[in-house]
Amino acid sequence: MSTKYVYLFADGQTEGTGQMKDLLGGKGSGLAEMTNAGMPVPPGFTITTEACNAYYTEGEQFPEGMWDQALEALAKVEAFTGKKFGGSDNPLLVSVRSGAKFSMPGMMDTVLNLGLNDETRVALAKMTNNERFSWDAYRRFIQLFGKIVLNIDSEKFEHVFDGYKKQLGVKGDTEVGEETLAKVVADFKAIVKKETGNEFPTDPLDQVKYAIKAVFASWNGRRAKDYRRINKIDDNLGTAVNVQTMVFGNMGEDSGTGVAFTRDVSTGEKVLYGEYLQNAQGEDVVAGTRTPKKIAQLHEEMPEMYNQFVELANRLERHYKDVQDMEFTIERGKLYMLQTRNAKRTGAAAVRVAVEMVEEGVIDKATAIQRVEPAQLDQLLHPMIDPKASLNVIATGLPASPGAASGTAVFDPDEAEEMAKEGKKVILVRTETSPEDFHGMVAAQAILTSRGGMTSHAAVVARGMGKCCVAGCDQVVVDYANQQFTVGDLVVKKGDSITLDGSTGRVITGEVPLINPEISGHFKTLMEWVNDYRKLGVRANADTPHDSEVARGFGAEGIGLCRTEHMFFEGNRIDSVRQMILSSSDFKNLEAQLATARADAEKSGSKDAAKRVKDLEKKIAKPEQLYKGALADLLELQREDFVGIFRAMNGFPVTIRTLDPPLHEFVPHDDKTLKELAAKIKMPFKEAKAKVTSLHEFNPMLGHRGCRLGIIYPEITEMQARAIFEAAVKVKAEGVTVKPEIMIPLVGNVIELKLQADVVRRVAGEVFAATGQSVEYLVGTMIEVPRAALTANQIAEVAEFFSFGTNDLTQMTMGLSRDDSGKFLPAYVEKKIYGDDPFQVLDQTGVGQLVDIGIQKGRSSKPNLKVGICGEHGGDPESVIFCHKVGMNYVSCSPYRVPIALLAAAHAALADKGAAKTTTA
Amino acid sequence: MSTKYVYLFADGQTEGTGQMKDLLGGKGSGLAEMTNAGMPVPPGFTITTEACNAYYTEGEQFPEGMWDQALEALAKVEAFTGKKFGGSDNPLLVSVRSGAKFSMPGMMDTVLNLGLNDETRVALAKMTNNERFSWDAYRRFIQLFGKIVLNIDSEKFEHVFDGYKKQLGVKGDTEVGEETLAKVVADFKAIVKKETGNEFPTDPLDQVKYAIKAVFASWNGRRAKDYRRINKIDDNLGTAVNVQTMVFGNMGEDSGTGVAFTRDVSTGEKVLYGEYLQNAQGEDVVAGTRTPKKIAQLHEEMPEMYNQFVELANRLERHYKDVQDMEFTIERGKLYMLQTRNAKRTGAAAVRVAVEMVEEGVIDKATAIQRVEPAQLDQLLHPMIDPKASLNVIATGLPASPGAASGTAVFDPDEAEEMAKEGKKVILVRTETSPEDFHGMVAAQAILTSRGGMTSHAAVVARGMGKCCVAGCDQVVVDYANQQFTVGDLVVKKGDSITLDGSTGRVITGEVPLINPEISGHFKTLMEWVNDYRKLGVRANADTPHDSEVARGFGAEGIGLCRTEHMFFEGNRIDSVRQMILSSSDFKNLEAQLATARADAEKSGSKDAAKRVKDLEKKIAKPEQLYKGALADLLELQREDFVGIFRAMNGFPVTIRTLDPPLHEFVPHDDKTLKELAAKIKMPFKEAKAKVTSLHEFNPMLGHRGCRLGIIYPEITEMQARAIFEAAVKVKAEGVTVKPEIMIPLVGNVIELKLQADVVRRVAGEVFAATGQSVEYLVGTMIEVPRAALTANQIAEVAEFFSFGTNDLTQMTMGLSRDDSGKFLPAYVEKKIYGDDPFQVLDQTGVGQLVDIGIQKGRSSKPNLKVGICGEHGGDPESVIFCHKVGMNYVSCSPYRVPIALLAAAHAALADKGAAKTTTA
After folding, report:
1. pLDDT (tens digit, 9 = 90+) per residue, B538-595?
2. Do B827 and A786 touch (CB under 8 A)?
3. Which residues of A touch B821 (CB under 8 A)?
4. Which residue among A303, A394, B668, B763 is least enclosed by CB atoms within 10 Å?
């Protein structure tokens, strides 16, 4: 018994159903469904995706039985239509179209008008009583078949046709008469003969056979492969092939063709939306050679057809309970539905349709939530370029942070800050950014860098601020000396206007109109429903009171990561930070020497020892004053920072990470600034320079940072803890509900955490004792070093919460530096070594194991351990779903991704319910 | 019923045994054992380690019952000796000594002559008929008690005593008469009164009580703690206290005291070895105030005593079946044994004793193997400084690579090479080394760096070459401009002689006599036995034919890691490497553009496209010639390298790692060299400079290196594979048995391995087809990225072997850069966050888990997967034992550590047997 490879669809004889998407593809199952629902669908048959896969496994041969089944189905179509394939009387013409499980618009190939040859053309002319139409169909057929099935360059056909049009002095195709079209057909046949060495195939069955093979081949064409790679569609699904009776929209003024959506897919408004062309075939709509009319006009031109179509459209939407994207053709006053599928839509439309369909009673809330892709919400949260604007795109980089912005190009962060103060909108252009550029990034509308990847400093910081960024745009050559950048021969000077589109990576000259998408009432409604379904908490990564307010506005339920050091660059506090750093090592060295000397002196009582103590006391005085003075200054500043954040997050927990980055990130690397600093703290320049140099590290990512700083310099942790608790006590007195959670970074060993937690708890006790007030607080840790995940059972004995720092955990687990991976990671994704950039989408296979191990081991010693994530992945929908699955309590992400995370969390919870249903059913 | 805290030892009444080391400490159990064996041991009692621990848990109070038990035991000692503690007639004097489970020489405190006061002194004088002796004993007692129990600075006593000696105009203590000593005693008592505010305690029981407390306190003294930290002794063991009847070696010319070993602990020769002093107490031997005599002289001076002692020594060695370290005292012609314990010995002695004791039939081979600590063998494998030499040590750095060497200081690697060619011995001094310095390191006798840790480039390379290295010596300030270094005010100029001791980290001025320890026949014998017991294979990390021969000579059974790039710096081949690097990116970019352009041209057939192809073909010509030309040159050179290595390792497997380090390690970083290179390959200097700059990485450790190079530049892997297989085919024709194992580094994902393995296997096929010869080979991978361990089941589907690269695995798992950890890792070890430097001793708790996971997952998909290790840990005994336990097939280490690994492997196998015995018993 041979496999069933062919499924007929014809009113009353349809073999497939709308559920058979895997086997029949989206289009095939849609055609079966529509036919079953009694819609006017031109009859035909679908060759299954299994046939496609078998075709490849059998060395590009049709699998056994397939062709016979196709012939059988064809005979039934002939019987149904009363037409004859290749018949010289009432000839049947067919289209051959691909149709995979997932829509791949424009990626796959279609051939129309199969069945035409010299005889059937005559019959077609007779049957339609239209000689010109028959020649035009024949001309189109040879060209399309030549291009798609025979791989002949389209230009060759166009060249000939254009020649005739020039000869005739006409522009439009419809102005070419039948005699000329006949010559064109002859010439086209000659082209085929010349290019392939063979005559154009005249046997209609051969035509269909070759066309089916071409559709199968198109599955592995470059365009299709690229599309699948980008859209993460499995290469092994295969495509189905639909062979369907042709209907003609170009049979005169009572004919036409069009595409329409049951609702407006840009806005989601409930209004029939689409366009059509009278006396035209489908490809004319797509090709754009004629300007189509709005669907509403059909109401006036063919009212009966319009009413029929509206009725069908409404039935289809009710049937599928979703917005439909439909193709139709009117052949001499008869309406045919050629295709229907769920419509792609913008984020705004997705939200509105989902909410309104609930209001209309079409779907329930859970379905509405599932109808909106979390990633789509991104469009609602950033300004975008007006789609109608004409753009001069000069380069394209990485879409590092979404949104769009215009401004004048500036190359220096200080200048960016100054100009912004003057009220100018600036775009900061740098080869790459570093924390020293932070103030310039804050001041700028957007950031453009010529180096760095999706997780370079510029990209990460910009995303955190919800600010547009195009990164790693290597066509842009930045020339600081001349305050300009070039793209090829084009020069953009300081002060020139540019526009960046961070959603696509485009760099555009001049100013461009932007749209500030409105967060409509529907969006708010949807997010309220989301909160009823999700189980995972969602917090935000926010470092300032302003960010905290934004986050809260977007629905964040707390701060999951407050990077205290981001505040170090604000205003002139960086001077205190630098003073602290430059004096720290001297102070610590002398402190250790002094301790030893004092112990020696106490034990021996000798004069020498006493003298040494005195000498050291003298020596330590200056570094001590500098170090402790700087810490005292920072205490004041940090306390005020925390007061602001605590007030903004009244009632919600705030997770504050102690100092994390290596110290060299804070010191000046230009001699001028360093000289000023050295003069200010009365340190010889040479000494200051030596200290800066000594902070250099080969691999700073794995160097002296995170808790390693606090362990060597416990005074810094102490200062930060004091600032936190003093701020907490202060706002509590104001009536603010404050829940600080102090988080120790880069812990790899429980003893590290213990040493730092001891400092924090001691300081808390001191502050509470001194003020007579106390606040509830937690001390926990980042899990970002693989060893921490592996020894999480030990760490959980001290930690009151875990927060997975999956940025660093990814770097270390994969041995992959974010900042350096730009050289090979694109090639890696290209070669499918990794499906996605692992810094955007969590690598569940590798890094995910450590997350899972970390949670399980952590809860093995502390069953109710609170667990979250605060890497970039906390805002990526796939990764959020993973976090839900492994049992985290919350995710934390950029404020601008909070709604996305909330929606993804609801999706995850609903998927659980779905799974639960399946298993209990 | 109260705990038994006190154990009596007295002939016939001994309560302890030699097995009770945990409870009675090493000394106490030894005293019990000796007494039980009928040796002449002065009677006494031991207070247990449990008592010490209880003392601390009870807030520094004697636990209940302890003191009563002590008094009871004391009464028995009185009865046994017929003396009375505090008696005015025949007074008993005792010593109070600490005695922990493990010997902690010089780390713990001892008090002698307890029981003396004004009355007993008189009695002692009467009893011994020696007034001066009694005063001297009293004087010593007050000083020692004052210092140890009452914490009075010794100098205060010395000062007084010295004053009297000066007054008398004498130098030796023995020249001071009894009248003066009586005055000294009075003054000493006054010192005690002044310093403590109390009279010197005259009650003998108080004296004992305070002394016991002082011994308990000494367990937590700084010296003891430091010793335990360094020697990895558990802080919770506690110390026992031995209270023992005093015997006096200073009762005249028929008295004496000494220490002796049953064999020579330097050489292992079977000869009584030790020294003694006539008319002296034990502390005189230790203090070095008098020069002791060789033990052989006792034979002449007190032949009877000597013979008795020899007889006892022989009995003790037979009893303990190991070399004994004994203390004895002769009191008026009667010999007393005060202590015996297994003797510490040098590596050479350990080997000789172990082998000879087997030959003597004392122990079996397995015991002999276990008697030698693997780490001790290190001493046998490197030159060492003559212990008799007097040294001017100017600084101490990290003991980065053992051995010692003298030579003239040189600061430039080129100069080092030139001078070495002239036959001069040079020491290369650098702030730190990089691969560019390799030729200078090869030429030098030893390397000194002022920066970098135990696993810095200098340290790793030096250990690999078995060359002495002192690293990270931060007292040394290198001044390249003046070709000198300074240590404080001391200046060492180029050409000055210095000596380095890489085993201790010492930097010494001038030349110093060195000893080249002979690898004696005993060593060879032991290693033969080792091979009968061990199960783990041992290979060497070797990069050159010379290293391969050395490794083989040391017993390596193959090469576990051949780092092909180490050969890149030899001779002028670095020029080809650099040419390859500077042309690689241009070639690859243009190659990709050309591929696209050709496809476009083929598809469209347009003239523009064809022109673009031609333009690109023209453009690619030069980089292609440079790139492929360089690869062709390298192919020749590498093939010859491999021929040499294969010949040297005839019959053994050779694991060759494909290119691993980031490319920037190979390019010149000084403009002069780069200019020459640019001129040579006719590349504008600016362009060459830009390329070098573009190779900079923020975290090169996690950057574009390892297989990531081979994936972007498969031609490099192809060249290396071709060199390997062409070399293999060539030597096979010579009759050499060749077993190449090609190892792909830095794999984190099975697809990476697959892509590289495909290249290697394709090239193998090509070479075999071209030559008509073939060789067996394997393709495997390093497991050094955490993700590789976590996905080892997938990777093992492609890999034919795993080799754990625990250097990188440690860096990534712990988030710890080897080169940067110097700033905080010492403090981490100090604070006991990590017990050891994890780059020297494998972190079994963290990194070890990934090793275990990697092996288990790997073997889950390939049960017979061959697994090894090739990080530095492969030569560390503890880590080797771990590798045995987790089921590895082999370890691979520096050639100079092969015997250590072999011995550790045997220890591991014997421990298994021991465990098996225990469990089956």
Report:
1. 999 999 898 899 899 899 999 999 998 877 877 778 889 999 999 998 898 888 888 8
2. no
3. 703
4. A303
In A204-287, where do the E strands start and end? 239-245, 256-261, 273-278
- Residue B286: pLDDT above 70? no
pLDDT score recorded for residue B569: 78
Verify whether the Cβ–Cβ distance B787 to A814 is below 8 Å: yes
Interface mutation target, options B449, B584, B604, B698, chain A, most CBs of A under 10 Å: B698
Q: Which strands form B476-479's sheet, in the order they lie side by side? A: B476-479, B484-487, B490-493
Task: Number of helices (H) and strands (E) in chain B: give both, helices first.
Answer: 33, 33
Helix (H) or strand (E) holding A442: helix A438-443
Task: Give the residue from A78, A223, A218 showing the smallest Cα distance to A148.
Answer: A218
What residues of A are in contact with residue B785 (Cβ under 8 Å)? 813-815
Whether residue B870 lies in the annotated active site = yes
The angle at the Cα of B388, spanning B382 to B390, to the nearest 5 degrees, equals: 105
State which residue of chain A sits closest to B834, comparing Cα positions: A749
User: What CA–CA distance (Å, rounded) separates A459 from A447?
Assistant: 9
3-class SS at B498?
strand
- Single-letter code of the amino acid located at B376: Q
- Residue A1 has a pLDDT of 55
Residues A716, A659 contacting (CB under 8 angstroms): yes
Q: Rounded mean pLDDT of chain B?
A: 90
Contacts of B597 (CB under 8 A, 6+ apart): B609, B612, B613, B616
Distance, C-alpha A900 to centroid of its chain: 11
Q: How many CA atoms lie within 13 A of A51 on its CB side?
A: 31
> Which residue among B703, B706, B784 places its CB closest to the CB of A817?
B703
In three-state secondary structure terms, B400 is strand
Angle between helices B204-219 and B49-57 (to 10 degrees): 80
Catalytic residue among A468, A870, A883, A893: A870
What's phi and psi for B12, nearest 5 deg?
Answer: 85, -15
pTM of the model: 0.81
Percent of chain B predicted with pLDDT > 90: 63
Q: Are A57 and A176 in contact (CB under 8 A)?
A: no
Complex ipTM above 0.90? no
Establish, for the pair of chains A and B, how many residue pairs have beta carbons separated by less than 8 Å: 183
- Known catalytic membership, residue A883: no
CA-wise closest residue to A779 among A790, A791, A763, A793: A763
Cβ B785–A815 below 8 Å, yes or no? yes
- Would you call B833 and A785 a contact, using CB atoms and an 8 Å cutoff? no
Length, in residues, of chain A = 921
Residues 804-823 of A with CB under 8 A from B: 808, 811-817, 819-821, 823
Looking at the partner chain, which of B155, B702, B791 has a beta carbon nearest the beta carbon of A846?
Answer: B791
The lowest-confidence range among A195-204, B29-38, B306-315, B381-390 is: B381-390
CA B504, CA B400: separation in Å to the nearest integer?
A: 9
What confidence tens digit (pLDDT) does each residue in B234-258 have?
A: 888 999 999 999 998 887 889 999 9
CA gap B276, B296 in Å, rounded: 10
Residue where the block lists tokens 């109710």: A864
Closest listed residue to residue B869, CA positions, set B801, B819, B816: B801
Closest chain A residue to B790, measured at CA:
A846
Answer for the pair B826, B788: CB distance below 8 angstroms, yes or no.
no
Chain A residues within 8 A of B746 when measuring between CB atoms: 815
At A266, is the secondary structure helix, strand, or coil?
A: coil
Q: Are B787 and A821 within 8 A, CB to CB?
A: no
Instruction: Search chain B and give the residue with CA nearest A820.
Output: B703
Mutate one of A699, A795, A857 to test the B interface: name it (highest B CB count within 10 A). Answer: A699
Please say if the pLDDT value at position B208 is more than 80.
Answer: yes
Structure tokens at B521: 């026949």
